[in-house]
Design brief:
By secondary structure, this protein is an alpha/beta fold. It has three domains: 65 residues, Arc Repressor Mutant, subunit A (Orthogonal Bundle), CATH 1.10.10.10; 124 residues, ATPase, nucleotide binding domain (Nucleotidyltransferase, domain 5, 2-Layer Sandwich); 156 residues, 2-Layer Sandwich (Nucleotidyltransferase, domain 5). Helix 8 packs across helix 9. The longest helix has 25 residues. The radius of gyration is 22 Å and the shape is globular.
Length: 372
């Protein structure tokens, strides 16, 4: 298996390549001779490849940049909700190759496994190196300990799927997986510490500190959804008045929009009507933006991190939320505090599935066997 130093070389090339040995040495604070020594077994095993000579303007012979092998294969990410399966096929850098979703007709563990296997097979790719599955709830060691959207407890999902797919399977909490994708491949890449706030069927919060995603037992299980934001706000399904879930989730927005216009409409309809100029709904989204800003200000203040990545399907409405969110953040943060930077990810449900693919890629990097 890879040594820690070999793994560092492979990971750096994966995240930032192609890189010359000189650049790689500088990034890792190693000598060029050490990089050459560490890269040799990775090249022999086909993990890395050398590209054509690159003249970088420095004195000496041209370098041959190192890159991840193009034969690294496909990785599949699956985001499970209570009623749908969202699938993304990516390359080893989590660049999207294909994506689609379909209904989850049978949400039992066996039914979900059958649906996932069918989804992976429908991609028609014979080079799948790993599958990642993300879902809401507490996940540990490939086991869905508590997945309330699916009604599962203590389901050994990774083991069940590996038997059916015959490829390595990684199972992770959806917010943690998304944070990992943003840290390695997304808008958080290069930011050593940041908060991830997700808006969708629920409200989630992830945290990256010193380049590592926080993985405590409470990470990603939605506790932030019941953080109170407004004393006079509407109640959530659990009776908490003015909490994040009651103001920011897509179902909550749909309920508030339906009351505002006097008929039942969905989240997408509310967004479309607001963009078309409906003043009642524009005011509702402005109010939602104010609540989002309050949550972001609290997240930045309590985490001591001023960079916030916003993701999830609720980001489809970010253009309607941005101005009021920024105003609320400015109002609630002291002038002496670092300015909060918002980094929206607009890829919606694809971001969730791509997050699942990212944890499969991370797991694959840890499984590389140079003895093969």
């Amino acid at each position: 298996m890879l040594t820690e130093s070999e793994s560092a070389v492979a990971r750096e090339v994966l995240l930032h390549g192609p890189l010359s040995r000189r650049t790689l040495a500088a990034r890792l604070r190693l000598s060029p001779a050490s990089v050459t020594r560490l890269a040799r077994p990775l090249l022999a095993a086909g993990v890395l490849v050398e590209l054509d000579d690159d003249i970088d303007g420095t004195v000496g012979r041209p370098s041959r940049p190192l890159d991840i092998s193009p034969t690294a294969g496909t990785f599949v990410g699956v985001k499970l909700t209570g009623d749908r399966v969202h699938v993304a096929a990516t390359d080893i850098r989590a660049d999207l190759l294909d994506a689609y979703d379909h209904p989850l007709d049978d949400p039992s563990p066996r039914g979900a496994c059958v649906a996932i296997v069918a989804a992976v097979e429908a991609l028609g790719r014979d080079d799948v190196r790993g599958v990642g599955v993300s879902l809401g709830g507490h996940v540990s060691g490939g086991v869905a300990v508590d997945a309330p959207f699916l009604g599962w407890r203590d389901i050994p999902l990774a083991r069940m799927l590996e038997r059916m797919l015959e490829v390595p399977v990684t199972v992770e909490n959806d917010v943690v997986a998304l944070a990992e994708a943003e840290r390695w491949f997304g808008v958080g890449r290069g930011i050593p510490g940041f908060v991830v706030v997700t808006i969708g069927a629920g409200v989630g919060l992830g945290l990256v500190v010193d380049g590592r995603t926080v993985r405590t037992p409470d990470a990603g299980i939605g506790t932030v959804g019941h953080l109170p934001l407004r004393a006079d706000g509407p109640p959530c399904p659990l009776g908490h008045r003015g909490c994040a879930d009651s103001l920011l989730t897509t179902p909550a927005i749909a309920r508030r929009a339906s009351r505002a216009v006097g008929r039942a409409i969905g989240f997408d309809d509310a967004v479309a009507l607001a963009r078309a100029g409906d003043q009642v709904l524009r005011a509702l989204f402005a109010d939602t933006g104010d609540a989002l800003g309050a949550l972001c200000a609290l997240a930045a203040t309590l985490s001591l991190h001023a960079d916030i990545v916003l993701a999830g399907e609720g980001m489809d409405a970010f253009d309607l939320l941005r101005e009021e969110a920024g105003t609320a953040i400015s109002r609630l943060r002291p002038r002496s505090a670092s300015p909060v930077s918002l980094h929206p990810d607009h890829s919606g449900f694809t971001a969730w599935a791509r997050g699942a693919a990212a944890v499969a890629i991370q797991a694959a990097m840890g499984r590389i066997d140079l003895a093969r």
